[in-house]
Design brief:
single chain; mainly beta; eight-stranded antiparallel β-sheet; 7% helix; globular
Length: 313
């Protein structure tokens, strides 16, 4: 996990001179600056290449508190304990692995409301370098319902190892799928190559299958404008709707639930549906649940720079 600072770039223009002169670089920075970058300045006399003037300076820059707050965390977009259709009971398990240097907070943000500092939280630490296991994460909070989870390290920028699973609890056992921890910096576009540095990301559920139900979701990271587009299977029409999502908010459900108060058609087998972050930053996703077994799956965008091994770092 990386934290980012807004950096000051200093450019030096070196003008060739006919005679050797003393070269000095004088830069000042606030005494509480948090990081630095060293620059070397070389002035060359073109008439006499051996006549060089060299100096170095360190430029100190501030970390941006707002950017640190937004990016120095891991996000599990959807967690919860809740009943569903066809007698389903969905839960979330969480495993954290670390050592005695790692500690922080798990913060639960309830669905439909912007996250706040007063949202329920529990601490995590590894005094014996062990593993923390929450078979039912929401029971650790003493809550039921759906929301999203922030994993916020304290005193370090390093996250513990994270393994999350969403599952349906049934008389025959559990049916479920793993859910990766997401790194907000990637969805702000900060960790992508220059040509891909945009927060615009989307996800598409193609040709919805018979016997399955699809729900759409967005976990915003900043105030965001989101586009929902449905291409209906019969080819007779398409539906496009834009809606706003406040920062640090989870919305999830049918198209109408996601884009309320707008009333949109339900998704039918054969439909294509796309959820796209037009501006701001957010993590769009969709879930597919088997109507017979209530076995859930969750799908996220594949970004241009994703290294899949990161998800368990």
């Amino acid at each position: 996990m990386h934290c980012f600072a807004r950096c000051l770039v200093v450019l030096f223009l070196c003008v060739p001179v006919a005679v050797h002169a003393t070269c000095t670089v004088s830069l000042t920075a606030p005494t509480d600056a948090q990081s630095g970058q060293t620059y070397r300045v070389i002035a060359t006399n073109t008439a006499n290449p051996s006549d060089l003037c060299v100096a170095e300076a360190t430029v100190l820059v501030h970390a941006d508190p707002a950017l640190d707050r937004a990016t120095c965390r891991g996000v599990i977009p959807v967690v919860g304990t809740t009943g569903g259709l066809n007698g389903s009971l969905f839960k979330t398990s969480l495993k954290l692995a670390g050592n005695e240097t790692l500690h922080g907070r798990l913060v639960f943000h309830p669905i439909g409301k912007p996250g706040s500092d007063s949202d329920p939280s529990i601490s995590y630490s590894f005094p014996a370098g062990d593993v923390l296991v929450f078979d039912d994460l929401m029971s650790a909070f003493g809550l039921t319902g759906v929301g999203s989870l922030d994993i916020i390290p304290e005193g370090t920028i390093q996250l513990p190892g994270v393994e999350a699973r969403i599952y349906n609890q049934s008389a025959q056992g559990t049916f479920g799928t793993m859910e990766p921890v997401m790194f907000p910096a990637e969805f702000f576009g900060l960790e992508r190559p220059p040509e891909l540095q945009t927060p615009n990301v989307g996800v598409t559920a193609s040709r919805i299958s018979e016997g399955a139900r699809v729900n759409l979701g967005i976990r915003s990271l900043a105030d965001s404008s989101v586009v929902l587009f449905i291409r209906h299977a019969d080819g007779s029409r398409s539906t496009l709707q834009k809606f706003f999502v406040a920062a640090d908010t989870l919305l999830m459900g049918t198209p109408s639930q996601l884009a309320a108060p707008y009333v949109l058609p339900d998704l039918l087998p054969g439909d294509d549906v796309t959820l796209y972050v037009e501006s701001g930053a957010g993590i769009p996703f969709y879930t597919v649940t088997d109507n017979r077994t209530n076995d859930p799956a969750i799908n996220f965008p594949v970004l241009g720079d994703v290294n899949l091994g990161r998800y368990n770092n």
